[in-house]
Amino acid sequence: MNSSFKVVIAMIIWGSLGLFVKNINLPSMETAFLRAVIASGIFIIYNLLTKKANFKQYSKKNLILLLISGIAIGFNWVLLFQAYKFTTVSNATLSYYFAPVFVVLLSPVILKEKLTPRKLLAVTISMLGLFLILNNQSIASTIEHNHIIGIGYGLAAAALYASVVLLNNYIEDLSGFERTIIQLSTSALVLLPFVLSRGQLYIDSSKSLIFILVLGVAHTAAAYLLYFSALKDINVQNAAVLSYLDPISALVFSTLFLHESMGIWQIAGGALILISTFIAENNKLEEKDVTHNIS
């Protein structure tokens, strides 16, 4: 399979994440836990068969960073799934795409990088985009949604995603697969006590069960493996450009299948956020962290 095509498929899979989460009748904590358990289980089995991960390379420093980032990934998913519950998929997705802006803002402190005019422009544009979305009169709470709270969850998830990206800068000599197998396993273990104490891990329908399996197998394990295998043979800049299919497909899917509509100001705000992301990442296009998830 062509490497670019693999990336396209992975992005479209991630773009459909909100559709499936919206149809899972479980709290966000339990959904995130099951996603981590299923995906990490598949990764562990895959590694036993292929021996792709060299655990001898996991230094003490790397292991500590992987554990911290794994915790961040787990709660990042919880917050993102909460965003889907409180607002539309489009609002949750666009607020989640604020992560690169958080990276830009934190890089001078954590990575000692210079805050260039280009990066300041990206921050300004993204803030304007967020203002347009929040200021849209259709954003008011309804019986179905509380958009402000949902967008708040999306921004909080974006902040955790940004922390993972920043931590990954300090993890040395490990492939994306080697990082992810530890991070996802950590996510599952960290969420386990919360899930057990809450006692809400009950799947009440075959529909929810199927969608949870799809979430763990397709949206996490399969999409990650597709992306990792493609990165070996594709130009990083091309992969970064193709990654915009993720939010774009999410908006298209939410319109087609969930009948969610976006006002003109939401569309303008969303476009500004995506433009700001492109500006922020330009000239520094690195391997995408696929913990969201990526989504």
From TrEMBL:
The keyword Transmembrane applies. The keyword Transmembrane helix applies. One of its GO terms (cellular component) is membrane. Coiled coil: none annotated. SUPFAM superfamilies: Multidrug resistance efflux transporter EmrE. Keywords: Membrane, Transmembrane, Transmembrane helix. It holds the Pfam family EamA. Residues 7-134, 149-279 form the EamA domain. It comes from the Bacteria. The chain crosses the membrane at residues 7-26, 32-50, 62-82, 94-111, 120-136, 148-168, 208-227, 264-280. InterPro entries: EamA_dom, EmrE-like. PANTHER family: ACYL-MALONYL CONDENSING ENZYME-RELATED (PTHR22911), MEMBRANE PROTEIN (PTHR22911:SF102). Belongs to the EamA transporter family. This is EamA family transporter. It comes from Clostridium bovifaecis. The lineage of its organism: Bacteria, Bacillati, Bacillota, Clostridia, Eubacteriales.
